[in-house]
Design brief:
By secondary structure, this protein is α/β, with parallel strands linked by helices. Helix content is about 40%, strand content about 15%. It starts with 9 loop residues before the first strand and ends with a helix.
């Protein structure tokens, strides 16, 4: 197997919850040596994530080494700073003011290691009137507009079914870290990179945001219909529902021919995309009356043959039963010393030399590698025992 792209990169992980660990997971899976630093104490899971041996924590924190440090203690802080001297990256997602109180902020670390790339995620940004407020995914979904455009028309605000602000903020931060590392290769100097749940959520509004910024339209809830491209949505079949996306003139014409409804092409109410959008309710009802006459499998085969996008609506078990999902190999096996053989969600990125990282390591238990890491820093067994006895690690 080829060497992973981030092999040799040293990362200190101060993250918890989800957004920060998502960023670090991107680095760990692609080969970085990540040390997850947690306070000593009870071997619990994350504050928001449940049991340490549960599905969420295991999927989120794999491929790391784990150590404990009480960063509030001066000796523990000194150990952290010694590690930071040779690290490439530090990642944290405290509230924006906490890192300064703990003296693990960028400016402090850059004094001992000017090459450090320091990544931060907060709820609302590192400055501004809301900078020090605590923020979690659902708060960002609401404040960032997503809940106003999710759900059925008139339903009232609806959150999406995944922590999308957390996840995208983490992915954006990992991208920012890689950008800073590339720039460091040119300049020899590190820098502080940061994003927030709110910024990530607003970016993910994408065309819905530009509808307001450019066209001054305030989007509303559109349910399962695409907000602007009709017909695109969920349609009933004899044994369930399927998704069909037939917006655009060419797709629309192929679609109605495929389902045996050529008469639709002469209806003046549906002549253009704008008219189909304006008259979507009647149009969708007419399509549904046709699609509910035959089972999903029939329509999926027929509509796909016509070159019109369509697909099943799976539950999560169905996702991993899909032949295409299994071919992509995105469910990755891990052997855990307590849980045995489990699967986690693999990477969606494919490289020619590394189509997927082939081997993933398990999530470490609390402080599992503390002694080994301290040994690398020059501490002997007696010194480590003393640190442990005094609650430093």
């Amino acid at each position: 197997m080829a060497t992973l792209p981030l092999t040799g990169l040293k990362v200190l992980d101060l993250t918890a919850h989800r957004a920060g660990p998502t960023a670090v997971r991107q680095l760990a899976d692609w080969g970085a040596d990540v040390v997850k630093i947690e306070p000593p104490g009870e071997a619990k899971g994350d504050v928001l994530g449940g049991n340490r041996h549960g599905f969420d924590f295991q999927n989120l924190h794999r491929n790391k080494r784990g150590m404990t440090l009480n960063l509030k203690a001066p000796e523990a802080h000194a150990i952290f700073m010694k590690m930071a001297e040779t690290a490439d990256v530090v990642v944290e997602n405290y509230r924006s003011d906490v890192k300064f109180r703990l003296k693990v902020d960028y400016e402090t670390i850059a004094k001992v290691n000017p090459r450090i790339v320091y990544g931060s995620i907060s709820g609302f940004g590192q400055s501004g009137p809301d900078a020090t407020r605590p923020g979690v995914d659902q708060i960002a979904q609401g404040m960032g507009g997503l809940m106003s455009i999710t759900g059925l028309p008139g339903q009232g605000p609806v959150r999406v079914g995944i922590p999308i602000a957390d996840l995208t903020a983490g992915i954006f931060l990992s991208q920012a870290i890689l950008l800073a590392l590339m720039q460091r290769a040119q300049t020899g100097k590190g820098q502080w990179v940061h994003t927030s749940l709110l910024e990530a959520q607003i970016f993910m509004l994408d065309f819905q945001a530009s509808r307001w910024l450019i066209a001054h339209e305030v989007p509303g809830q559109a349910g399962n219909d695409h907000p602007t491209g009709i017909p695109t949505g969920v349609f009933p079949t004899a044994d369930g529902h399927i998704n069909i996306a037939a917006s655009g003139q060419g797709l629309w014409e192929r679609f109605v021919k495929a389902i045996g409804w050529e008469d639709a092409l002469s209806n003046p109410d549906w002549k253009t995309g704008g008219l189909r959008s304006k008259n979507r309710k009647d149009l969708n009802e007419r399509i549904g009356a046709i699609t509910r006459t035959k089972p999903s499998a029939y329509w999926l085969e027929t509509i796909n043959k016509a070159g019109v996008p369509c697909g099943p609506i799976n539950d999560i078990a169905g996702v991993f039963a899909e032949p295409q999902t299994q071919h992509l190999g995105i469910a990755k096996p891990i052997h855990h010393p307590v849980l045995g053989d489990i699967n986690v969600v693999g990477q969606p990125i494919n490289l020619t030399d590394n189509p997927q990282p082939e081997a993933l390591g398990p999530t470490p238990d609390l402080g599992q590698h503390t002694d080994a890491i301290l040994g690398e820093l020059g501490y002997n067994a007696a010194a480590i025992a003393d640190l442990r006895a005094r609650g430093i690690v």
